[in-house]
Structures are given as C-alpha cells and as structure tokens.
C-alpha cells in the first residue's frame, strides 16, 4: 500500500475514498488541473505504465483515464470484463493485482464489490486508484465534480446544492456528498424517493461535521434555492429487486420548462453520465446545462491526479 510523501500529498499515494483527502489536497489538485495542459508537454509519465483493471463495465471513466495517461506520455495495460480475463477461470483478485503490480507503475481498478479497491491497495506496492467500487466510493468522479463547481463558480463554498435521484446505490452521488463535506456548503438538499435515500453512514458524516442538510422527496419544493443541481440516474444494475427498479424508474425528470419556471437564472445542472431519462434533452442547449463541461473536465482532473501521484 502506497502512502503520502511530504511536500506533495499525492506523491505515490493510493486514491481510495474522497474522504481520505483534505480541502488543501483538493485545492492543490484544482491548481494542477488548471495548469496540466502546459505541464503535459514535458510528458511526466513518459516510460511509465498504468494498468486499467476494469472488472465492471465502463466507458467514460475508462476512456478518460486512458486518454489522460496517453496525453501525459504514458502507456496503458487494459483488462476489462471478468469474462475476458483469468479471474473468470478461478484466479483470485489478489493474484491478479499482484501480477499487475509487477507490470505497471500504478493500477486503476473498477469493481462491483465495495472494498475491492482498498483490498487491491493492501496487496499492491504501487499506487492504486479507485475508478469506482461498490455503492459508495468513486473518488475521481467526486474530484472532477468538485472541480467543475470550482470552475463554474470560482469556489465550492457558500452554495446551495441539490443532489437528486438514487442516493442509496449511486456511488457518484455518495462520493459527491462526501466531497462537499471538505468544503463549506450553505446547504445540501438530498432529493430522492424514500426507498433511495442516502445511506446512514453518509448522513452520519454530514451530522458529525455539522453540514446542514435536508432530505426531501419533491424537487419543486427546493429547486428555487439551488445553485447546483446534481442529477443521477436510478441505478438499475445495483438495485437487487427488478420490481423495485420498475417502480422507481422515471421518478424524476428535469425539463427545461421546470427550470425556467422555478430555478435561479444562475443554476447549473450537473450529471456524472450516462443519463437515461432523468434530464430531458431540451436542457442540453440551455444556460443551465453544465454536464458536458463536467465530462470534458474529467480528462484534465485525471491528468492532474496521475501527474501528482506518479510524476510528482
């Protein structure tokens, strides 16, 4: 397991949960992201290899990391889908990570089971970056979400946030909420059906840190107060009962008419993508839409993170 080095809190470090970092750490990451395109010209990862171990389907996160590595001058090893690798033949995760640890200078892992990234970090000597595991942790998504807010508003502090959708099973939503606790939000509204409310361990962090929050069911009740609306899809692949998913899908739909009638002029709508039907296409060309910027910034933030962890 890799640890931090004085002077650069990211150097050689595992990235498992957003709560492992401080506000100062993230502010350093934001500065690095602001300047990463010019720094990339020096190819800080030249001669280095990053293993992308994606045991769960992914498009955006995998391509974002792959692009980030290559723009920094590095190369990648990709394994994706348990059916395509020796894990499906009986090899355990520890053996796979040990093998990758001998091939690569860092490992990015994505896994359906919670705790898989932490376990991989305990096995590996090289840095391990969590590309999403289980239902709670997706730290690099939270980093780019917070960076997007920073780019849009100049600060993460003092804003009123609404987090809408699947707050129980959605790891992007959980990580974003936990990431906000490193800053000073004015208020966080957690908007979801009763069955998909944020898990108790997430709420306990908010309460322990004195972050003001309110759980609500109707977006319309709070929309006019929001500076940022973070929308997530209902997680079909993580809801254990298909009948429960059928009863919950389509619970919320953000439309341009709704935003124009109730939202602040300056409201920005974020979404980790992919979406299903929770944001109407009419929002795409509006002043409220910021999720395409959010997606583009994913490469910059992951370039900055890799540069700090691997290049120093």
TrEMBL record:
Residue ranges occupied by any Aspartate/ornithine carbamoyltransferase carbamoyl-P binding domain in the UniProt entry: 13-150
Aspartate/ornithine carbamoyltransferase Asp/Orn-binding domain segment(s): 158-308
Residues holding L-aspartate: 89, 171, 233
Pathway where it operates: Pyrimidine metabolism; UMP biosynthesis via de novo pathway; (S)-dihydroorotate from bicarbonate: step 2/3
Catalytic activity: carbamoyl phosphate + L-aspartate = N-carbamoyl-L-aspartate + phosphate + H(+)
Residues the entry annotates as binding carbamoyl phosphate: 60-61, 110, 138, 141, 273-274
Quaternary structure and interacting proteins, as annotated: Heterooligomer of catalytic and regulatory chains.
Name of this protein: Aspartate carbamoyltransferase
The species this protein was found in: Aeropyrum camini SY1 = JCM 12091
Protein's gene: pyrB
